[in-house]
Structure prediction request, 681 residues.
Amino acid sequence: MQSAIESAGITKKFGSNRVLNDITFSVNESEIFGFIGPDGAGKTTLFRIVTTLLLPDEGKMTVFGTDSLKGFRELRKHIGYMPGRFSLYHDLTVEENLKFYATVFGTTIRENYDLISDIYSHIEPFKKRLAGQLSGGMKQKLALSCALIHKPKLLVLDEPTTGVDAVSRSEFWDMLKNLRKHDITILVSTPYMDEAMRCDRIALIQNGSLLSVDKPRKIKEGFGKRLYRIMAPDKYRLLISLRKYELTDTAFPFGDSIHVTFRDDIYDQSLINHLRSEGIANVTIEEMEAGIEDRFLELMERKLDGEIE
Amino acid sequence: MRTILYLIRKEFIQIFRNKFIGRAIFGVPIVQMLILVPAVTFEIREVRICIIDQDMSTISRSLINRLEGSTFFRITNTTFSEEEGNRLLLEDKCNLVLHIPENFGRDAGLGKPAHLLATVNAINASSAQLSWAYLNGVIRDFNSDLIMQNINYVQPVQASVININNRYWYNEMLNYKFYMLPGILGILVTAIGFILAGLNLVREKEIGTIEQINVTPVRKHQFIIAKMVPFLIIGLADLTLGLVIGRIFFHIPFEGSIALLFLSASVFLVAVLGFAIFISTFSGTQQQFMFIAFFCMIIFILMSGIFTPLESMPAWAQKIDLINPVAYIMRINRMVMLKGSTLSDILRDIYSLAAIAVFFTAFAVRRYRKTA
Prediction:
């Protein structure tokens, strides 16, 4: 299988600030490849390089075998880009926006209608409405339609689900899954770890560096230790006490619980005694399967330790 | 080509969908023409004058009579004290103090040189010069009549006098509106083109739509052309509107060819739009653009020769005006409208404008980057 994107040693600096650091990965054709990382990790910058909007300082980016530097003009015909910020014309109607992007790419709505029908049909009843007056979810569908209207080979989606409600988010991922049958490679970024599982492969990115690239399941399995979910009514005091406990390896707050690993992988009565001496009662402890986020934090921690050493 | 046409169509839809801009495009020229043309005038209707007549002779009185008879002057005060005269000038009760000293009548009668002292409030230098010129004219006439009388006395032969008749060409009645109107038209077209086009592009940056356009196969020159053409058309439409208003309300003469005026206006607009887009390529926000645009427009307009003749500017300023498109259009407008100049008369100006247009537009296209 030919790879859709080959990135070799991409580095980008803004002033003295190193935003991307030696980014190397490859994306297979027709896969959904996700970039998972917190805000400011460098996802948008990387996407701007893939979409030929930004030049890297070092490294080589190849998209469908074409160098993104030399062949940018050719590549722009085959890339559909949906920036993180809604950037369609607010003062044009839904239909006018779509028609505009179709025309600019030298095609028509009718020609590629089958590709977007799935998505566009949701907003078609509002096609005479100004894009600025749409709700968040509808804006997102319109933006996706506009990014798809020229039947791109590569679809780049920068945080498409940020600021969208949970139902729409789930719908959105279903739509992406459906697009795979049209042989479209999808590059997507998200700060939501739960969305990672819906990608074929993911890259964990933090502070401009890749932590890991693999299938989401493999990444989860990479978590080396046994993980426990610990709950108590006073979560904050529980966290402090757990971090004080000498056999604790890591302790991170997750929702209403705390995910904890221990140096010897298991805990014993001394933990209970320790918590009791700290005045924490009603503690429940259960072993759990690690998620992407646990792995992310583990990798991040390890990287920080590495840097300190 | 299809892409450019479609991009232009999009611009028009957006411009006229914005109710405020859509109306302002036609409202601004109407208001500007109707207010500025009659308001901005150099004509001096009434110079308030204070007379200090310490002579009180028949000659001094007949000079005062003459001043009273003139439409330019109104004698507001008469006094005998110089201090009083100076005080009135200071308090802005009069614009000019004419001091007729004690022996004025005697000296004039004897044929000796007689003296007068005029003090003019020169806070506004040009109105001071005009007042002085008017006064000078009255005194000169008075003087030559006086000489005639003296000569007649001694020598009853009719003296031969050189009689000067002047005629004002191209604006016979010295109607100041005729001079200002072509200039105001120039400013109008500048403002519309410059500000609207520049803001439009910066707005695409602010909203982020430019990012989306940049990933499309739309070429730089297509994008820039599509940004310029709508405002070129709007600029010409405003020019038409301005001319119609000038014709109906101010009966402005139009000696030259309308086609020539529109041709030069088009070249001029390309220069201005090119410059506006050039500025907008390095402005990140509409605020930044407006700040720089305002600064440039003030310089362009005040140095264009709309109020002060180019010839009276220092040599270095005239050099700067070689790259000021507004200076060219001022000259062209006035020459074509008032003088009836033909293409060959203004060819140099049009060439210069075209050079500026090409220069700025090329710069704008170069500066506008689709890739950072």
